Automatic annotation (TrEMBL):
<dbReference type="InterPro" id="IPR005225">
    <property type="entry name" value="Small_GTP-bd"/>
</dbReference>
<dbReference type="Pfam" id="PF12631">
    <property type="entry name" value="MnmE_helical"/>
</dbReference>
<dbReference type="InterPro" id="IPR031168">
    <property type="entry name" value="G_TrmE"/>
</dbReference>
<comment type="similarity">
    <text>Belongs to the TRAFAC class TrmE-Era-EngA-EngB-Septin-like GTPase superfamily. TrmE GTPase family.</text>
</comment>
<keyword id="KW-0819">tRNA processing</keyword>
<dbReference type="InterPro" id="IPR027417">
    <property type="entry name" value="P-loop_NTPase"/>
</dbReference>
<protein>
    <submittedName>
        <fullName>tRNA modification GTPase GTPBP3, mitochondrial-like</fullName>
    </submittedName>
</protein>
<keyword id="KW-0342">GTP-binding</keyword>
<dbReference type="InterPro" id="IPR006073">
    <property type="entry name" value="GTP-bd"/>
</dbReference>
<dbReference type="InterPro" id="IPR027368">
    <property type="entry name" value="MnmE_dom2"/>
</dbReference>
<keyword id="KW-0547">Nucleotide-binding</keyword>
<dbReference type="InterPro" id="IPR025867">
    <property type="entry name" value="MnmE_helical"/>
</dbReference>
<dbReference type="InterPro" id="IPR004520">
    <property type="entry name" value="GTPase_MnmE"/>
</dbReference>
<dbReference type="Pfam" id="PF10396">
    <property type="entry name" value="TrmE_N"/>
</dbReference>
<dbReference type="InterPro" id="IPR018948">
    <property type="entry name" value="GTP-bd_TrmE_N"/>
</dbReference>
<dbReference type="Pfam" id="PF01926">
    <property type="entry name" value="MMR_HSR1"/>
</dbReference>
<feature type="domain" description="TrmE-type G">
    <location>
        <begin position="252"/>
        <end position="443"/>
    </location>
</feature>
Length: 521
């Protein structure tokens, strides 16, 4: 047992040399480059308002306090002081405002930071920024540079950085909540938890390599390791099999309205949006291009598209419209398939008809290749279509000859069909129940209400998790007698996890992540 423990410690350091060190080098390199300069930026929205916040970070912060705010002694950190702000060169007074500073490392960036809360007027802001520029070794911050420094100083990992970016971009409540929990470290905890467990596995394997000749190495250590790797593997697999909920919530649910010409697709889009987004007319083939509208439905971000009526046609423009409709269908998370109600009055077995309506129609079209534009649909696209959620909307219920027929049809649909609404865009009959069906579907696509596990939110994470999983799979299942080769698999798996959190990363990855930030964050 003693050797067992010693193995962990020794191997831990071997591990440290190979992976952690790599990241430290990158960080140190950046740290040295950026820590010599002090950066400043307007962190609030530019324009006329009550207050503007200018943020400063770096070694010159004390100098800023002394020369712009004219503190005689270094003030107490984390306290607001009402001060006059002066230009350090011509000694002109520029404004009066609140000044606060944070001493390193207890600040957002991990460096000395200060904030000047001044009046938000164009001239005031410009003059204070210019005054900051007059101090030695100061310069305007690049987009996201404050956050980048926080990352390089170990204040945040990359998933938390991405959480901040998502929070700044969040437009709906559900997006806000997801971004917040990511910023608070839910993904960091999950991924670094796996990393810690794999690190121990690797340490065990390396201990085995180093000490297996030795009598004292614990029996069955490799079996134990295999079990641990297997359980991490299973957890990653579950996390990946989330039907892309988190990514969808982040980027918006894609809803596509399709159906034959003139069934009322554009009318439905306008009703959902509560404005005249698309042209409605009695002429068949009115909509040609895809018409998009971004909406907030029950706190979830949604992109609804109206498309050209699906039919075989000689008209070249309409053919192009049908082709585009099919392209959108392939990307859809949710399809609203609109039908004319008169098709249904004579039908006896409505449930079967409606429940199967969508898939056979499109998939048989795909198989038969009977519309030019559908020739482009490959079999995997057809598979995608099959996986999308569908709501069948039966429109124009006001045209049903008698009230009793309408009620009968409605009852039959409610009893026999899963996702179907009988509505009238003209009278708005059934609209509310359709909208609540739509909202429920969207919610289901974005979050799993049964579990409160953190969702995978980014393609970047998925990419590295899939690669990590591949190495773990090789470790678990491949017949390999050379234990050193097996150890290498674990090491590679660990590197992939490190790439997600940024403990192993390259300058290019950082550039991509920070480029979308605004200046001053
Ligand atoms: N009576 C009745 N007419 C409707 C209803 N919904 C739509 N319409 C009419 O049906 C016609 C076609 O409506 P659109 O919304 O343009 O139909 P579409 O499916 O977008 O048509 P295309 O873009 O040409 O494929 C228009 O004259 C609408 O006013 C409805 O619920 N009841
Ligand atoms: K029309
Ligand atoms: Mg239309």
């Amino acid at each position: 047992m003693i050797y067992f423990l010693r193995g962990i410690r020794l191997s831990g350091s071997i591990y440290g040399r190979k992976i952690i060190h790599q990241s430290v080098q990158t960080s140190e390199h950046n740290w040295m480059r950026c820590s010599t300069s002090t950066i400043y930026a307007l962190s609030s929205f530019p324009g006329r308002a009550a207050v503007a916040v200018i943020r400063v970070s770096g070694p010159q912060v004390i100098m800023v306090l002394k020369s712009l705010a004219r503190f005689k002694n270094i003030p107490e950190p984390r306290k607001l002081f009402l001060k006059k702000i002066f230009d350090p060169v011509n000694n002109k007074m520029l404004d009066r405002g609140l000044v606060v500073w944070f001493s390193k490392p207890k600040s957002f960036t991990g460096e000395d930071c200060c904030e000047l809360h001044i009046h938000s007027g164009t001239a005031v802001i410009m003059s204070v920024l210019q005054a900051l520029g007059k101090l030695p070794k100061t310069r305007p911050a690049e987009p996201g540079e404050f956050t980048k420094r926080a990352f390089l100083n170990g204040k945040l990992d990359l998933t938390e950085v991405e959480g901040i970016a998502d929070l700044l971009n969040a437009e709906t409540e559900a997006q806000q909540q997801q971004a917040l929990s990511q910023m608070e470290g839910c993904l960091y905890n999950l991924y670094s938890g796996w990393k810690e467990r794999l690190k121990i596995c690797l340490a065990h394997v390396e201990a085995f390599i180093d000490f297996s000749e030795d009598e004292n190495i614990e029996d069955g250590i490799l079996d134990l390791t295999l079990k641990s790797v297997q359980s991490v593997f299973n957890e990653i697999e579950n996390h990946l099999a989330d039907n892309r909920r988190g990514e969808r919530l982040r980027s918006g649910v894609k809803v596509v309205i399709v159906g034959e010409p003139n069934v009322g697709k554009s009318s439905l889009l306008n009703l959902i949006c509560q404005r005249e987004v698309a042209i409605v007319s009695p002429l068949s083939g009115t909509t040609r291009d895809v018409i998009e509208a971004a909406l907030n439905i029950g706190g979830y971000p949604v992109l609804v598209c109206d498309t050209a009526g699906l039919q075989e046609t000689e008209d070249l423009v309409e053919q192009e419209g049908v082709k585009r409709a099919f392209q959108r269908l392939q990307q859809a998370d949710l399809i609203i398939y609109v039908k004319h109600c008169l098709e249904f009055i004579e039908q006896k077995n409505i449930g079967e008809l409606v429940n199967n309506i969508y898939k056979p129609t499109f998939l048989s079209a795909v198989d038969a290749n009977n519309v030019d534009s559908q020739k482009n649909l490959r079999s995997e696209d057809a598979e995608l279509l099959k996986n999308s959620e569908v709501i069948v909307v039966i429109n124009k219920s006001d045209l049903l000859p008698e009230e009793i027929i309408k009620e009968n049809l409605k009852q039959k649909l409610e009893k026999e069909c899963i996702s179907c609404s009988l509505i009238s865009c003209k009278t708005e009959y059934g609209l509310n129940s359709f909208l609540s069906l739509l909202q429920n579907k969207i919610k289901k696509l974005c979050c799993d209400s049964r579990t409160f596990k953190p969702s995978l939110t980014q393609d970047r994470h998925r990419f590295h998790l899939v690669k990590c999983q591949k190495y773990l799979k090789e470790y678990i299942f491949e017949e390999e007698t050379d234990i050193a080769i097996k150890a290498e698999k674990l090491r590679k798996g660990l590197i992939e996890l490190g790439m997600i959190t940024g403990h192993v990363c390259t300058e290019e990855v950082l550039d991509v992540i920070f480029k979308d930030f605004c200046i001053g964050k």
